[in-house]
Amino acid sequence: MTDPIPVAVLGAPGRMGSAAVRAIEAADDLELVAGIGPDDDRDDALRAGARVVVDLTVPSVTKDNVLWAVSNGIHAVVGATGWTEESLAEVREALGDAPSTGVLIAPNFAIGAVLAMRFAEVAAHYYESAEIVELHHPDKVDAPSGTARHTAAAIARGRAAAGLGAMPDATASDPDGARGAVVDGVHVHAVRLRGLVAHEEILFGGVGEQMTIRHDSFDRASFMPGVLLGVREVASHPGLTVGLDGYMDLGAH
After folding, report:
1. According to its UniProt record, which residues of this chain constitute the active site (predicted)?
2. Which site from 128, 182, 196, 209 is most exposed, i.e. has the minimal number of CB atoms within 10 Å?
């Protein structure tokens, strides 16, 4: 029997962090060696011998945490949002000096959400119109969500592969922004409502029909299978992977 993987959680006191702590502690092949809060020294994870860190912190610190992990040869599984192309490029550059280190940045750890994004990329080939509605709790600090951005990118890839142009939209006046944000050519609408956790509707329209792909996370426990998958697989995927689908056998894009 192989030794369990030593894991540290950054952001351990938070809602996602505390759920991850419980899931790691319950897994026979993993060992929680450190739970790091905002007032703790993250080097405690290094001293405890962590081989993987799970970063479930906030956008203001997540990039620095990942760069710290890479500089210390620790694999990182990241659920914190707020990543830009510029910050991803910094991680790729840092990984150039650590070719055996893996980093997974997952916009969503729920298996169903990952599948919804893949289905959206396929469906985008066949529909003239597509829009996204993402719904989260009002304590979420960023909008649109990372999941919605990742979904919009998937739709854009599907449309480009099918040779589709811009979607029809005759709106000429929208002084209040009622049409929402535009991400990769896809309109995205963000709802923040007490009682919600994480939800997404992906709407496709063609002449005479509409198709909706919807995913709902009612509890943060829904994210834990994806977190554990990331922790178990990250060492086998050196370099930067964006999206849990990179670790799943979902066929060709």
Report:
1. 136 (proton donor/acceptor), 140 (proton donor)
2. 209
| HSE value, Cβ hemisphere, 13 Å, CA-based, for 253 | 15
Same domain, 132 and 195: yes
Give the Cα separation of 93 and 101 in Å (integer).
12
Give, as one character, the DSSP assignment of residue 98: -
> Is 13 one of the annotated binding-site residues?
yes
Q: For 198, list phi and psi in degrees, rounded to 5.
A: -150, 125
Integer Cα distance of 31 and 13 in angstroms: 17
140 is catalytic: yes
Tell me: is residue 45 an annotated ligand-binding position. Answer: no
CATH code, 119: 3.30.360.10
| CB contact at 8 A, 15 and 57 | no
Q: What is the pLDDT of residues 83-115, one digit of tens each?
A: 889 999 999 999 999 999 999 999 999 999 999
Asked if residue 242 belongs to a domain, the reply is: yes
Q: How many CB atoms lie within 10 A of CB 191?
A: 13
Cα–Cα nearest to 243, from 115, 119, 134, 136: 115
Q: How far apart are CA 103 and CA 84, in angstroms?
A: 15
19 assigned to a ligand binding site? no
Task: Pick the catalytic residue from 63, 75, 136, 199.
Answer: 136
- Model confidence at 252, pLDDT cuts 50, 70, 90, reads low
Residue 164 has, within 13 A of its CA and on its CB side, a CA count of 21
171 is in an annotated binding site: no
Active-site annotation holds for 136: yes
